[in-house]
Amino acid sequence: MNAGHAGRCLFILDTNVLMHDPTAIFRFQEHDVFLPMMVLEELDQGKKGMSEVARNVRQASRFLNDLIAGARKQQIDAGIPLPTPKNGPSDNYRGHGRLFFQTETLPKLLPDSLPGNTPDNNILGTALALQEKHPELKVTVVSKDINLRIKAALIGIRAEEYFNDQALDDVSLLYSGEESVAADFWETHSGEIDSWQERGRTFYRLKGPKPAQWYPNQCLFMEGENGFEAMVRGRHGEQSIIELTRDYRSQKHSVWGISARNREQNFALNMLMDPEIDFVSLLGTAGTGKTLLALAAGLAQTLDKNLYRDIIMTRVTVPVGEDIGFLPGTEEEKMTPWMGALMDNLEVLTQTEGGEWGRAATDDLLRSRIHIHSLNFMRGRTFLKKYIILDEAQNLTPKQIKTLITRAGPGTKIVCLGNIAQIDTPYLTETTSGLTYAVDRFKHWEHSGHITLLRGERSRLADFASDAL
User: Fold this and answer.
1) β-bridge pairing 228-236 and 219-222
2) How far apart are CA 206 and CA 112, in angstroms?
3) 317 φ, ψ (degrees, to nearest 5)
4) Which domains does the chain have, with CATH numbers?
5) What is the pLDDT of residues 430-463, one digit of tens each?
6) Contact 35/111 with Cβ under 8 angstroms?
7) pTM (2 decimals)?
8) pLDDT digits over 137-150, tens only?
9) CB 387, CB 298: distance < 8 Å
10) Which residues contact 45 (CB under 8 A, 6 or more apart)?
11) Residue 39 — left, alpha, or beta (φ > 0 → left; ψ -120 to 50 → alpha)?
12) Residue 108, Cβ neighbours under 10 Å: how many?
Protein backbone atom coordinates (compact mmCIF):
# COMPACT_ATOMS: atom_id res chain seq x y z
CA MET A 1 0.00 0.00 0.00
CA ASN A 2 1.80 3.13 -1.18
CA ALA A 3 1.63 6.75 -0.10
CA GLY A 4 -0.18 7.71 -3.26
CA HIS A 5 -3.39 6.84 -1.45
CA ALA A 6 -2.90 9.48 1.25
CA GLY A 7 -6.04 11.46 1.99
CA ARG A 8 -8.30 8.54 1.20
CA CYS A 9 -10.18 6.31 3.59
CA LEU A 10 -9.26 2.66 3.93
CA PHE A 11 -12.33 0.53 4.67
CA ILE A 12 -11.76 -2.92 6.17
CA LEU A 13 -14.77 -5.08 5.38
CA ASP A 14 -16.14 -7.65 7.81
CA THR A 15 -17.37 -10.96 6.39
CA ASN A 16 -21.02 -10.26 7.20
CA VAL A 17 -21.03 -7.21 4.92
CA LEU A 18 -20.24 -9.38 1.87
CA MET A 19 -22.65 -12.05 3.09
CA HIS A 20 -25.37 -9.41 3.12
CA ASP A 21 -24.41 -7.55 -0.07
CA PRO A 22 -21.90 -9.20 -2.48
CA THR A 23 -21.50 -5.91 -4.36
CA ALA A 24 -20.31 -4.08 -1.22
CA ILE A 25 -16.70 -3.93 -2.49
CA PHE A 26 -17.88 -1.61 -5.29
CA ARG A 27 -19.81 0.79 -3.04
CA PHE A 28 -17.03 2.94 -1.56
CA GLN A 29 -16.52 5.37 -4.46
CA GLU A 30 -12.97 6.82 -4.50
CA HIS A 31 -11.92 5.11 -1.25
CA ASP A 32 -9.85 1.96 -0.83
CA VAL A 33 -11.12 -1.42 0.42
CA PHE A 34 -9.08 -3.95 2.39
CA LEU A 35 -9.98 -7.63 2.86
CA PRO A 36 -8.20 -9.45 5.72
CA MET A 37 -7.26 -13.08 5.12
CA MET A 38 -9.68 -14.08 7.90
CA VAL A 39 -12.57 -12.69 5.81
CA LEU A 40 -11.56 -14.88 2.85
CA GLU A 41 -11.39 -17.88 5.19
CA GLU A 42 -14.90 -17.18 6.53
CA LEU A 43 -16.24 -16.71 2.99
CA ASP A 44 -14.81 -20.12 2.11
CA GLN A 45 -16.56 -21.69 5.09
CA GLY A 46 -19.91 -20.05 4.23
CA LYS A 47 -20.11 -20.93 0.52
CA LYS A 48 -21.91 -24.27 0.87
CA GLY A 49 -25.68 -24.68 0.86
CA MET A 50 -28.75 -23.22 -0.85
CA SER A 51 -29.43 -20.40 1.61
CA GLU A 52 -29.47 -16.73 0.60
CA VAL A 53 -26.26 -16.18 2.59
CA ALA A 54 -24.46 -19.02 0.76
CA ARG A 55 -25.55 -17.63 -2.62
CA ASN A 56 -24.29 -14.18 -1.66
CA VAL A 57 -20.94 -15.64 -0.57
CA ARG A 58 -20.50 -17.44 -3.88
CA GLN A 59 -21.37 -14.25 -5.78
CA ALA A 60 -18.86 -12.24 -3.74
CA SER A 61 -16.20 -14.86 -4.51
CA ARG A 62 -16.97 -14.59 -8.23
CA PHE A 63 -16.58 -10.80 -8.12
CA LEU A 64 -13.21 -11.15 -6.37
CA ASN A 65 -12.10 -13.76 -8.90
CA ASP A 66 -13.07 -11.48 -11.81
CA LEU A 67 -11.11 -8.61 -10.30
CA ILE A 68 -7.84 -10.50 -9.84
CA ALA A 69 -8.10 -12.58 -13.04
CA GLY A 70 -4.80 -12.22 -14.92
CA ALA A 71 -3.27 -9.93 -12.28
CA ARG A 72 0.33 -10.49 -11.20
CA LYS A 73 1.54 -10.59 -7.61
CA GLN A 74 2.98 -7.05 -7.91
CA GLN A 75 -0.36 -5.71 -9.20
CA ILE A 76 -2.27 -7.37 -6.33
CA ASP A 77 0.19 -5.91 -3.80
CA ALA A 78 -0.29 -2.44 -5.34
CA GLY A 79 -4.09 -2.74 -5.16
CA ILE A 80 -6.60 -3.84 -7.78
CA PRO A 81 -8.43 -0.85 -9.37
CA LEU A 82 -12.09 -0.98 -8.42
CA PRO A 83 -14.90 -0.16 -10.84
CA THR A 84 -18.01 1.52 -9.45
CA PRO A 85 -20.84 -0.32 -11.21
CA LYS A 86 -24.45 -0.71 -10.18
CA ASN A 87 -24.54 -4.48 -10.57
CA GLY A 88 -20.95 -5.70 -10.62
CA PRO A 89 -17.63 -5.49 -12.40
CA SER A 90 -19.10 -6.13 -15.85
CA ASP A 91 -20.24 -2.50 -16.23
CA ASN A 92 -17.79 -0.16 -17.94
CA TYR A 93 -17.17 2.44 -15.24
CA ARG A 94 -13.88 4.20 -14.56
CA GLY A 95 -12.21 2.85 -11.43
CA HIS A 96 -11.65 5.06 -8.39
CA GLY A 97 -10.58 3.23 -5.25
CA ARG A 98 -8.44 0.12 -5.01
CA LEU A 99 -8.97 -3.31 -3.49
CA PHE A 100 -6.21 -4.61 -1.23
CA PHE A 101 -5.84 -8.14 0.09
CA GLN A 102 -3.84 -9.12 3.15
CA THR A 103 -0.69 -10.52 1.52
CA GLU A 104 1.64 -10.44 4.53
CA THR A 105 1.54 -11.28 8.21
CA LEU A 106 0.77 -8.18 10.27
CA PRO A 107 2.00 -7.72 13.85
CA LYS A 108 -0.54 -8.51 16.56
CA LEU A 109 -1.22 -5.31 18.46
CA LEU A 110 -4.35 -6.39 20.29
CA PRO A 111 -4.56 -5.31 23.94
CA ASP A 112 -4.85 -7.88 26.71
CA SER A 113 -8.51 -6.90 27.10
CA LEU A 114 -9.24 -8.82 23.87
CA PRO A 115 -7.96 -12.32 24.54
CA GLY A 116 -8.11 -15.22 22.11
CA ASN A 117 -7.79 -15.50 18.36
CA THR A 118 -11.44 -15.28 17.34
CA PRO A 119 -12.28 -14.11 13.78
CA ASP A 120 -13.57 -10.76 15.07
CA ASN A 121 -10.41 -10.16 17.13
CA ASN A 122 -8.28 -11.16 14.16
CA ILE A 123 -9.98 -8.50 12.01
CA LEU A 124 -9.55 -5.90 14.76
CA GLY A 125 -5.88 -6.83 15.08
CA THR A 126 -5.46 -6.32 11.34
CA ALA A 127 -7.12 -2.90 11.63
CA LEU A 128 -4.80 -1.87 14.48
CA ALA A 129 -1.73 -2.96 12.51
CA LEU A 130 -2.84 -1.02 9.40
CA GLN A 131 -3.62 2.02 11.53
CA GLU A 132 -0.10 1.85 12.98
CA LYS A 133 1.53 1.23 9.61
CA HIS A 134 -0.39 3.90 7.66
CA PRO A 135 -1.17 6.82 10.01
CA GLU A 136 -1.91 9.01 6.98
CA LEU A 137 -4.98 6.89 6.14
CA LYS A 138 -8.35 6.98 7.87
CA VAL A 139 -8.68 3.27 8.67
CA THR A 140 -12.31 2.24 9.29
CA VAL A 141 -13.83 -1.17 9.98
CA VAL A 142 -17.19 -1.72 8.27
CA SER A 143 -19.38 -4.37 9.88
CA LYS A 144 -23.01 -5.23 10.47
CA ASP A 145 -22.02 -6.89 13.75
CA ILE A 146 -22.87 -4.52 16.60
CA ASN A 147 -20.56 -6.28 19.08
CA LEU A 148 -17.57 -5.99 16.76
CA ARG A 149 -18.23 -2.26 16.36
CA ILE A 150 -18.42 -1.89 20.16
CA LYS A 151 -15.08 -3.71 20.61
CA ALA A 152 -13.54 -1.56 17.86
CA ALA A 153 -14.61 1.62 19.65
CA LEU A 154 -13.16 0.34 22.94
CA ILE A 155 -9.68 -0.10 21.47
CA GLY A 156 -9.70 3.11 19.43
CA ILE A 157 -10.60 1.91 15.94
CA ARG A 158 -13.15 3.72 13.79
CA ALA A 159 -16.09 1.44 13.03
CA GLU A 160 -19.22 1.98 10.97
CA GLU A 161 -22.25 -0.01 9.92
CA TYR A 162 -22.72 -0.75 6.23
CA PHE A 163 -25.24 1.88 5.12
CA ASN A 164 -25.35 1.40 1.34
CA ASP A 165 -28.20 -1.12 1.56
CA GLN A 166 -30.48 1.27 3.43
CA ALA A 167 -33.61 2.31 1.55
CA LEU A 168 -33.98 5.34 3.86
CA ASP A 169 -31.77 7.28 6.25
CA ASP A 170 -34.47 7.17 8.93
CA VAL A 171 -37.53 4.93 9.17
CA SER A 172 -39.61 7.97 10.17
CA LEU A 173 -39.21 9.13 6.55
CA LEU A 174 -41.02 6.03 5.25
CA TYR A 175 -44.02 6.79 3.06
CA SER A 176 -47.19 6.30 5.15
CA GLY A 177 -49.59 6.17 2.19
CA GLU A 178 -52.00 8.81 3.49
CA GLU A 179 -52.06 12.57 3.97
CA SER A 180 -54.38 14.94 5.80
CA VAL A 181 -55.53 17.93 3.77
CA ALA A 182 -56.24 21.33 5.31
CA ALA A 183 -59.75 22.44 6.29
CA ASP A 184 -59.68 25.16 3.59
CA PHE A 185 -58.78 22.61 0.91
CA TRP A 186 -61.86 23.17 -1.27
CA GLU A 187 -61.68 26.96 -0.94
CA THR A 188 -58.01 27.02 -1.85
CA HIS A 189 -58.64 25.05 -5.05
CA SER A 190 -62.14 26.35 -5.82
CA GLY A 191 -61.12 28.06 -9.06
CA GLU A 192 -59.19 25.04 -10.36
CA ILE A 193 -61.59 22.13 -9.76
CA ASP A 194 -63.38 20.02 -12.35
CA SER A 195 -65.74 17.31 -11.10
CA TRP A 196 -67.58 14.48 -12.81
CA GLN A 197 -69.09 11.06 -12.21
CA GLU A 198 -68.12 7.87 -13.97
CA ARG A 199 -69.50 4.36 -13.31
CA GLY A 200 -71.10 5.61 -10.12
CA ARG A 201 -67.83 7.06 -8.76
CA THR A 202 -67.03 10.75 -8.16
CA PHE A 203 -63.84 12.29 -9.55
CA TYR A 204 -62.17 15.70 -9.13
CA ARG A 205 -59.40 17.29 -11.17
CA LEU A 206 -57.25 19.70 -9.13
CA LYS A 207 -54.37 21.96 -10.03
CA GLY A 208 -51.72 23.51 -7.81
CA PRO A 209 -48.36 22.97 -6.13
CA LYS A 210 -49.78 20.58 -3.51
CA PRO A 211 -51.54 18.20 -5.95
CA ALA A 212 -48.30 18.10 -7.97
CA GLN A 213 -46.56 16.48 -4.99
CA TRP A 214 -49.04 13.63 -4.44
CA TYR A 215 -48.12 10.04 -5.25
CA PRO A 216 -50.27 7.65 -7.34
CA ASN A 217 -53.01 6.01 -5.24
CA GLN A 218 -52.07 8.12 -2.21
CA CYS A 219 -54.89 8.32 0.33
CA LEU A 220 -56.22 11.78 1.19
CA PHE A 221 -58.61 12.67 3.97
CA MET A 222 -60.18 15.64 5.71
CA GLU A 223 -61.73 15.36 9.14
CA GLY A 224 -64.72 17.35 10.36
CA GLU A 225 -68.16 18.22 9.01
CA ASN A 226 -67.05 18.62 5.40
CA GLY A 227 -64.68 15.68 5.67
CA PHE A 228 -63.97 13.31 2.82
CA GLU A 229 -61.76 10.35 1.91
CA ALA A 230 -60.23 10.04 -1.54
CA MET A 231 -57.40 8.42 -3.49
CA VAL A 232 -55.14 9.99 -6.11
CA ARG A 233 -55.92 8.34 -9.45
CA GLY A 234 -53.62 10.21 -11.82
CA ARG A 235 -51.14 13.04 -12.04
CA HIS A 236 -50.05 15.11 -15.01
CA GLY A 237 -47.67 17.96 -14.19
CA GLU A 238 -49.40 20.15 -11.60
CA GLN A 239 -52.77 18.44 -12.18
CA SER A 240 -54.01 15.51 -10.14
CA ILE A 241 -57.20 13.47 -10.39
CA ILE A 242 -58.68 12.21 -7.12
CA GLU A 243 -61.55 9.75 -6.64
CA LEU A 244 -63.79 9.54 -3.58
CA THR A 245 -63.35 6.14 -1.99
CA ARG A 246 -66.04 3.51 -1.51
CA ASP A 247 -67.19 3.29 2.10
CA TYR A 248 -66.48 -0.28 3.23
CA ARG A 249 -67.51 0.56 6.80
CA SER A 250 -71.16 -0.13 5.99
CA GLN A 251 -72.45 -3.70 6.00
CA LYS A 252 -73.89 -3.04 2.54
CA HIS A 253 -70.39 -2.88 1.08
CA SER A 254 -68.81 -5.54 3.31
CA VAL A 255 -66.11 -7.75 1.78
CA TRP A 256 -66.73 -11.45 2.48
CA GLY A 257 -68.60 -10.37 5.61
CA ILE A 258 -65.81 -8.05 6.78
CA SER A 259 -66.35 -4.31 7.20
CA ALA A 260 -63.71 -1.64 7.75
CA ARG A 261 -63.53 -0.38 11.33
CA ASN A 262 -61.43 2.73 10.77
CA ARG A 263 -60.20 5.07 8.06
CA GLU A 264 -56.96 3.20 7.29
CA GLN A 265 -58.77 -0.13 6.96
CA ASN A 266 -61.22 1.52 4.55
CA PHE A 267 -58.33 2.78 2.41
CA ALA A 268 -56.76 -0.69 2.53
CA LEU A 269 -59.93 -2.39 1.25
CA ASN A 270 -60.21 0.16 -1.56
CA MET A 271 -56.72 -0.80 -2.70
CA LEU A 272 -57.18 -4.52 -2.20
CA MET A 273 -60.46 -4.57 -4.14
CA ASP A 274 -59.11 -2.50 -7.05
CA PRO A 275 -57.97 -4.79 -9.92
CA GLU A 276 -55.95 -1.90 -11.40
CA ILE A 277 -53.61 -1.95 -8.40
CA ASP A 278 -51.22 -4.87 -8.85
CA PHE A 279 -49.07 -4.36 -5.75
CA VAL A 280 -50.40 -3.46 -2.30
CA SER A 281 -48.30 -3.12 0.86
CA LEU A 282 -49.90 -2.96 4.30
CA LEU A 283 -47.82 -2.03 7.33
CA GLY A 284 -49.08 -2.14 10.88
CA THR A 285 -48.61 -3.55 14.35
CA ALA A 286 -50.22 -6.76 15.55
CA GLY A 287 -54.01 -6.65 15.53
CA THR A 288 -54.49 -3.92 12.93
CA GLY A 289 -56.23 -6.36 10.56
CA LYS A 290 -53.62 -6.77 7.81
CA THR A 291 -54.07 -10.50 7.20
CA LEU A 292 -57.84 -10.49 7.69
CA LEU A 293 -58.40 -7.66 5.18
CA ALA A 294 -56.04 -9.18 2.60
CA LEU A 295 -57.62 -12.62 2.90
CA ALA A 296 -61.21 -11.32 2.77
CA ALA A 297 -60.47 -9.26 -0.36
CA GLY A 298 -58.73 -12.26 -1.92
CA LEU A 299 -61.65 -14.60 -1.28
CA ALA A 300 -64.18 -12.07 -2.61
CA GLN A 301 -62.25 -11.56 -5.85
CA THR A 302 -61.29 -15.22 -6.30
CA LEU A 303 -64.58 -16.98 -5.47
CA ASP A 304 -67.19 -14.28 -6.16
CA LYS A 305 -65.71 -12.24 -9.03
CA ASN A 306 -63.37 -14.87 -10.53
CA LEU A 307 -60.65 -12.26 -11.07
CA TYR A 308 -58.01 -14.67 -9.80
CA ARG A 309 -57.73 -18.44 -10.00
CA ASP A 310 -56.21 -19.14 -6.60
CA ILE A 311 -54.91 -17.49 -3.46
CA ILE A 312 -51.28 -18.24 -2.63
CA MET A 313 -50.06 -17.48 0.86
CA THR A 314 -46.41 -17.55 1.82
CA ARG A 315 -44.02 -16.18 4.40
CA VAL A 316 -40.37 -16.45 5.35
CA THR A 317 -39.82 -19.20 7.93
CA VAL A 318 -37.99 -17.37 10.73
CA PRO A 319 -38.92 -18.72 14.19
CA VAL A 320 -39.47 -16.30 17.09
CA GLY A 321 -38.18 -18.79 19.68
CA GLU A 322 -36.18 -22.00 19.37
CA ASP A 323 -36.48 -23.87 16.08
CA ILE A 324 -38.61 -27.03 16.37
CA GLY A 325 -36.51 -28.96 13.83
CA PHE A 326 -37.47 -30.73 10.62
CA LEU A 327 -41.16 -31.27 9.86
CA PRO A 328 -42.67 -34.25 8.04
CA GLY A 329 -45.07 -34.17 5.11
CA THR A 330 -45.61 -32.24 1.89
CA GLU A 331 -44.64 -28.61 1.29
CA GLU A 332 -48.05 -27.38 2.48
CA GLU A 333 -47.94 -29.64 5.56
CA LYS A 334 -44.45 -28.38 6.44
CA MET A 335 -45.62 -24.76 6.10
CA THR A 336 -48.78 -25.26 8.19
CA PRO A 337 -47.14 -24.45 11.57
CA TRP A 338 -45.97 -21.12 10.11
CA MET A 339 -49.45 -20.29 8.88
CA GLY A 340 -51.30 -19.92 12.17
CA ALA A 341 -52.40 -16.43 11.08
CA LEU A 342 -54.08 -17.92 8.02
CA MET A 343 -55.97 -20.53 10.05
CA ASP A 344 -57.05 -17.98 12.66
CA ASN A 345 -58.42 -15.62 10.05
CA LEU A 346 -60.15 -18.41 8.12
CA GLU A 347 -62.10 -19.20 11.28
CA VAL A 348 -63.39 -15.61 11.31
CA LEU A 349 -64.25 -15.70 7.60
CA THR A 350 -66.02 -19.08 7.63
CA GLN A 351 -68.59 -18.47 10.38
CA THR A 352 -71.37 -19.72 8.13
CA GLU A 353 -74.79 -21.03 9.03
CA GLY A 354 -75.70 -24.67 8.44
CA GLY A 355 -74.01 -26.31 11.40
CA GLU A 356 -71.02 -28.62 11.16
CA TRP A 357 -71.86 -29.80 7.61
CA GLY A 358 -72.03 -26.21 6.32
CA ARG A 359 -68.74 -25.25 7.93
CA ALA A 360 -67.03 -28.41 6.67
CA ALA A 361 -68.21 -27.75 3.11
CA THR A 362 -67.01 -24.14 3.28
CA ASP A 363 -63.63 -25.21 4.68
CA ASP A 364 -63.17 -27.76 1.87
CA LEU A 365 -64.03 -25.14 -0.75
CA LEU A 366 -61.62 -22.58 0.68
CA ARG A 367 -58.77 -25.04 1.12
CA SER A 368 -59.09 -26.05 -2.53
CA ARG A 369 -58.52 -22.44 -3.59
CA ILE A 370 -55.98 -21.35 -0.96
CA HIS A 371 -52.47 -22.77 -1.36
CA ILE A 372 -49.54 -22.44 1.01
CA HIS A 373 -46.08 -22.26 -0.54
CA SER A 374 -42.59 -21.83 0.81
CA LEU A 375 -40.39 -18.97 -0.40
CA ASN A 376 -37.56 -21.48 -0.85
CA PHE A 377 -39.16 -22.83 -4.06
CA MET A 378 -40.14 -19.53 -5.74
CA ARG A 379 -37.18 -19.19 -8.10
CA GLY A 380 -38.02 -19.85 -11.74
CA ARG A 381 -41.80 -19.88 -11.22
CA THR A 382 -44.37 -17.67 -12.95
CA PHE A 383 -47.76 -17.09 -11.31
CA LEU A 384 -50.67 -16.40 -13.68
CA LYS A 385 -53.88 -14.79 -12.35
CA LYS A 386 -52.96 -15.48 -8.73
CA TYR A 387 -53.68 -13.47 -5.60
CA ILE A 388 -50.45 -13.72 -3.61
CA ILE A 389 -50.29 -12.78 0.08
CA LEU A 390 -46.76 -12.40 1.43
CA ASP A 391 -46.98 -12.37 5.21
CA GLU A 392 -44.21 -11.17 7.58
CA ALA A 393 -42.50 -9.44 4.65
CA GLN A 394 -40.34 -7.37 7.02
CA ASN A 395 -38.06 -10.43 7.40
CA LEU A 396 -37.10 -10.44 3.72
CA THR A 397 -34.03 -8.79 2.23
CA PRO A 398 -34.46 -6.45 -0.77
CA LYS A 399 -33.06 -9.19 -3.01
CA GLN A 400 -35.54 -11.79 -1.70
CA ILE A 401 -38.54 -9.50 -2.11
CA LYS A 402 -37.42 -8.70 -5.67
CA THR A 403 -37.16 -12.44 -6.38
CA LEU A 404 -40.76 -12.95 -5.27
CA ILE A 405 -42.35 -9.92 -6.94
CA THR A 406 -40.69 -10.68 -10.28
CA ARG A 407 -42.49 -14.08 -10.29
CA ALA A 408 -45.78 -12.28 -11.00
CA GLY A 409 -47.28 -13.02 -14.41
CA PRO A 410 -50.25 -11.37 -16.16
CA GLY A 411 -53.30 -10.83 -13.96
CA THR A 412 -51.48 -11.48 -10.67
CA LYS A 413 -51.81 -9.27 -7.60
CA ILE A 414 -49.26 -9.26 -4.77
CA VAL A 415 -50.11 -8.11 -1.24
CA CYS A 416 -47.18 -7.60 1.16
CA LEU A 417 -47.96 -7.54 4.88
CA GLY A 418 -45.61 -6.76 7.72
CA ASN A 419 -44.56 -4.86 10.80
CA ILE A 420 -41.08 -3.39 10.49
CA ALA A 421 -40.86 -3.10 14.28
CA GLN A 422 -40.78 -6.93 14.51
CA ILE A 423 -37.79 -8.04 12.41
CA ASP A 424 -36.43 -11.49 13.30
CA THR A 425 -33.79 -11.85 10.54
CA PRO A 426 -30.16 -11.24 11.58
CA TYR A 427 -28.53 -8.09 10.13
CA LEU A 428 -31.83 -6.66 8.87
CA THR A 429 -33.06 -3.40 10.35
CA GLU A 430 -36.08 -1.17 9.82
CA THR A 431 -34.23 0.82 7.15
CA THR A 432 -32.70 -2.20 5.33
CA SER A 433 -35.75 -4.50 5.32
CA GLY A 434 -37.02 -5.61 1.93
CA LEU A 435 -40.50 -4.39 2.89
CA THR A 436 -39.19 -0.86 3.52
CA TYR A 437 -37.30 -1.07 0.23
CA ALA A 438 -40.42 -2.12 -1.70
CA VAL A 439 -42.65 0.56 -0.13
CA ASP A 440 -40.12 3.27 -1.00
CA ARG A 441 -39.49 2.07 -4.58
CA PHE A 442 -43.14 1.41 -5.50
CA LYS A 443 -44.62 4.68 -4.24
CA HIS A 444 -44.16 6.39 -7.63
CA TRP A 445 -45.81 3.58 -9.66
CA GLU A 446 -49.41 4.11 -10.76
CA HIS A 447 -50.38 0.46 -10.22
CA SER A 448 -49.27 0.21 -6.59
CA GLY A 449 -50.74 1.32 -3.28
CA HIS A 450 -49.58 1.52 0.32
CA ILE A 451 -51.17 2.30 3.66
CA THR A 452 -49.94 2.10 7.24
CA LEU A 453 -52.60 0.74 9.59
CA LEU A 454 -52.50 2.54 12.91
CA ARG A 455 -55.25 1.25 15.17
CA GLY A 456 -55.52 -2.25 16.59
CA GLU A 457 -58.97 -3.82 16.25
CA ARG A 458 -58.53 -7.23 17.86
CA SER A 459 -60.13 -6.77 21.28
CA ARG A 460 -60.15 -4.41 24.24
CA LEU A 461 -57.73 -6.80 25.98
CA ALA A 462 -55.23 -6.69 23.07
CA ASP A 463 -55.55 -2.90 22.79
CA PHE A 464 -54.87 -2.40 26.47
CA ALA A 465 -51.93 -4.82 26.41
CA SER A 466 -50.38 -2.97 23.43
CA ASP A 467 -50.49 0.31 25.37
CA ALA A 468 -49.70 -0.87 28.88
CA LEU A 469 -47.13 -3.66 28.43
Assistant:
1) antiparallel
2) 69
3) -95, 75
4) 3-160 (3.40.50.1010), 172-244 (no CATH), 271-468 (3.40.50.300)
5) 999 999 999 999 999 999 999 999 887 777 887 7
6) no
7) 0.81
8) 999 999 999 999 99
9) yes
10) none
11) alpha
12) 12
